[in-house]
Design brief:
about 180 residues, transmembrane helix, single chain
Length: about 180
């Protein structure tokens, strides 16, 4: 530290002109050289540095403006996309509601159709059962009638002789004649 202060003190006491020599004090010479170089750089480089900083400033400002424009465009596109998404969601909800109501309607139609079909099948079954019952009853009647007729014919044939047979036929013909007169 002492050397630094000595070098400044010695600056004030320069030897008289006429003597020329090298200053071997490194700190003193570096400060002088550094101040001279900085002075020259500031004097001559001020314009160049100012131009470089202005160009850099303009590039940064242009980049910021472009970024703002891009951000505004992106925000606008985002708003459009949100609006479109909202519209699509509403349409999807509408389709979903319509789909559910359509499914319910089809389900009810299918249930009603099935009930009608079952009811018709039940009616057909009942009609078939009634028809088969009537047919069975008619077959039983025919057999009973045939058996009764055969039994009556057998009894008549065994009990009747020719004379009784002719009287029965005459009586029946008389009854039919009387019925014929009553109906006219």
């Amino acid at each position: 530290m002492q050397n630094v202060t000595d070098s400044f003190v010695s600056l004030g006491h320069w030897p008289s002109a006429g003597s020329f020599g090298f200053n071997t004090d490194i700190l003193a010479t570096n400060l002088i050289n550094l101040s001279v170089v900085l002075g020259v750089l500031i004097f001559f480089g001020k314009g160049v540095l100012s131009d470089l900083l202005d160009n850099r400033k303009q590039k940064i400002l242009n980049t910021i403006r472009n970024s703002e424009e891009l951000r505004e465009g992106a925000v606008e596109q985002l708003e459009k996309a949100r609006a479109h998404l909202s519209k699509v969601e509403m349409e999807a909800d509408q389709f979903r509601v319509n789909g559910y109501s359509e499914i319910e309607r089809e389900k009810l139609n299918l249930i009603n159709s099935t009930y009608k079909t079952l009811e018709q099948l039940e009616n057909y079954k009942n009609e078939t059962i009634n028809f088969e019952q009537q047919r069975a009853i008619n077959q039983v009647r025919q057999r009973v009638f045939q058996q009764a007729l055969q039994g009556a014919l057998g009894t008549l044939n065994s009990c009747l002789n020719n004379e009784l047979h002719l009287r029965t036929i005459s009586a029946n013909i008389g009854m039919f004649g009387a019925m014929k007169e009553v109906t006219y």
